[in-house]
Write a structure and sequence with these properties.
Peroxisomal Thiolase, Chain A, domain 1
Length: 336
Amino acid sequence: MIRRIGQNTLGFEETPAIAGYASVAGKLESQGPLGNDFDKIIYDSYNGLQSFEQAESRLQTEAVAQAIKKSGVSAEEIDFIFAGDLLNQCIGSSYGLIDFNISYLGQYGACSTMAQGLIMASVFVESGAAKNAACVTSSHFCSAERQYRFPLEYGSVRTPTAQWTVTGAGSCILNNSKKGPCVTRATVGKIVDLGIKDANNMGAAMAPAAALTLKNYFTDTATSPRDYDLILTGDLGEVGSKSLYDLLLIDDIDIRNRHNDCGLMIFNRQKQDVHAGGSGCGCAASVLCSKILKDMESGIYNNILFMATGALMSPTACAQGSSIPSVAHLVNIKSR
């Protein structure tokens, strides 16, 4: 049964289990600190195909196939799949998942999509609408640059606040098997827009949404940062993480001793020229579905908050001078 906790949070009494998970990453990501944790590495930016967009679709294909294999269920047993990416009309997902023949519900939350997909899959499993549900999301550096900024051939100079879109994907299979890490609570974020217009500073645009969601979660659940082993944000990077600390300290909430960010974890910023860190749908997804869930299964973490953040920007809106609204969704994951 799903119950409301406070104004913004859902509680899952059956605690849907993450029965299987998998991650796929690109060459640059494999050279970072988490390189040994990914299930599969794609060394060719085209992934043997004819375009970066087709390559991104293949990332989702590979991630879902690996997650299904590890979950112990078959594709035929999965009732619904929740999937999204950064490309126009989410073509990374729709083209990548055709052959699975699973009922498909497309998602778009920008870089918050992995948390959104986890919430949707958990709701369906908890309610009995699905026995098994999957979620997956991806991003690709080359396809994202072409869509949101400049094609690589342009050779534009990146600002210090810019983040590097992760080439990667992550997928989870959820059911009520009572095995593995489980989803216990979730907070759906609200759209926040404080007027940031710089598309090369998404961390600053997303931090206010992250602060609001986290404050709402702590209020709804009557908990505090010290109740959790890890508070993991999706891809705020260096700029956004520092902004998040400052915004929370206004309300006397200090997460600095509990916090890490997927965009800071996936690359070695001293050796890899990624500026403020990683970003993209595949950033939070690939880090969660590799290092983090492995650490939960091994007992390093028992109770974490996973909060993916998304800048809901559009090239068209940015060209028209609009600011960048953002959202952050949070999932509380516990070990059995």
